[in-house]
Amino acid sequence: MTTTVNRQVLLAEKPAGKLGVEHFRLREAPMPVAGEGEVLVRVRYLSLDAANRAWMQAATYRSAVDAGTVMAGHALAEVLESRVPGLAAGDLVMGDTGWQQYAVLPGAGLQKLPRLEPLTHLLSVYGIAGLTAYFGLLEIGRPKEGDTVVVSAAAGSVGSLVGQIAKIRGARVVGIAGGAAKCAVLTRELGFDAAVDYKAGSLYKDLKAAAPGGIDVYFDNVGGEIFETCLFQMKLHGRIACCGAVSQYDGEPPAHGPRGVPGLIVTRRLTVQGFILHDFMARSDEALAQLQKWVGEGRLKVREDLVEGLENAPRGLVGLLAGENVGKRMVHVS
Amino acid sequence: MTTTVNRQVLLAEKPAGKLGVEHFRLREAPMPVAGEGEVLVRVRYLSLDAANRAWMQAATYRSAVDAGTVMAGHALAEVLESRVPGLAAGDLVMGDTGWQQYAVLPGAGLQKLPRLEPLTHLLSVYGIAGLTAYFGLLEIGRPKEGDTVVVSAAAGSVGSLVGQIAKIRGARVVGIAGGAAKCAVLTRELGFDAAVDYKAGSLYKDLKAAAPGGIDVYFDNVGGEIFETCLFQMKLHGRIACCGAVSQYDGEPPAHGPRGVPGLIVTRRLTVQGFILHDFMARSDEALAQLQKWVGEGRLKVREDLVEGLENAPRGLVGLLAGENVGKRMVHVS
Predict the structure, then answer these.
(1) Domains of chain B in sequence order
(2) What is the spatial distance between Cα B235 and Cα B148, in angstroms, rounded to a whole number?
(3) Taking the model in full, what pTM does it have?
(4) What's the complex ipTM?
(5) What are the residues facing B100 on neighbouring strands?
(6) A254, A210, A203, A214: which is closest to A238 by C-alpha?
(7) Are the beta carbons of B75 and B102 closer than 8 angstroms?
């Protein structure tokens, strides 16, 4: 190695309200050293996810990120030095490296990844986003042929894949996204049947027009008012797959939940189910094989959104929470 | 027949807020006459249910009850005259007779019921309440042995059975009810492990003390703040069976839903599922056989709460919505 410095991005301060770049700080630290049972890795691509913001609020499915520590995050990384059997220098792995150039990871649970082209697909369609879309839609939403499927944050990394997988499975698909440009991507590039711009100010009416018979499956990425609007348009025995609540991560915790809970859940016999990809990881091979087949056949289009340079990760995450990305956003670190 | 008069209770006016006896009116109408394919019945016991109140608000799983019409309601009735094959005078049936002494019912869907003793059990443990508790708990809540099951409106017709069935299935059972007297019935008579009085003003803390490890299955009869409190104490992969929302039937529709929806549903991977007994009616024989066995063995205790006289049905329903009953409330009409 020619460097002895490890550039890092710290969460300098926990945001009380909206996250800004001022909550982060750059630091140079010494190169970490791998101990027995660990690997030293070089971070290649860092995944930016709405969940990163939730981690700052409180313990969720992982412990909270504390102020003054390296910001947590998953990345595609290359092994520089291995003290773990089964992994060697040059191998690609995915791990919680945090926002830094180099990291030491415990060997337990690390898997060597194939060198696919483009590598970025390992973070999008073959990464958390793709697997989340696959299992969340097919196992939690369970669309049947001819069903009407609605997905929110539809131009995002998960939503853009959910809608396309629902189409492959024979559903009629409506995407909810912010702004006309994103809506155009959904219908013109990604094959959605309709798109609704929630920023246009008439979501209830516009959604009703796009899904006049009601919603069989709602794949929720956002929570809040969009969740409530969809809830009121669910059909009997409909399913709501709760994947995230990005509307509620950045700012004050919401004062109240959606109206209609649990009244409409009873009268329409709905199933509202939350999930975390982790619960399905034992079946990831099955999903990856199917996703690769669909991508290979051109049936699944992958949108990616690259931010250049570790120092731009804070700006990238702030922008992601404001909804500026189309497709999977990641940071090219090295 | 010695009478030619049919006493009826009308919903005189739709309540804008809380239901009162002033919203009802007594009337004497001529005896109805059964046409071809219909039966004339004498109403014996009229079921009072929180859902009666919901029917006044809007169409739910049935059309709304209009002002100026006979109040809708299910009853155990005896056939006086039959123009339907398979039913004869003296047979017992269950049907939507409405609040009146005599009714004409379409023959389609009517089933002759066994003359059990006491007859009232046909409206409680072998009626909608018993079947709702059975299927709602076992098919929607799905408790496993050792699970912690919490049920609200636990001293009510459904709740009192849910808790006992959960005990039979090996769960630890906590009931939520209003007032010390009801709580005492739950733990001393019905075998609940613990009871929490939501009127004591410290529900979150008291529930935490009664279910320190969290809740695996919450059977919700009430919605609103109790739903929210339980939601925040659910364990990973917990199930919420949504059976009703009695807190929201009597008065203004709620301004907001429970906090934590959908955030907690995601992070704790909860399943929140609504159901209506109707969807399970094809399997009612299976449930009735099991319920009869448990009652016969003394493992399931049946609490009933009788109101005497049709003219007291309005007072009985208003009192039910205020939570004054323990067990299944019904009106003895004749």
Answers:
(1) 5-124+303-332 (3.90.180.10), 128-278 (3.40.50.720)
(2) 10
(3) 0.92
(4) 0.91
(5) B8
(6) A214
(7) no
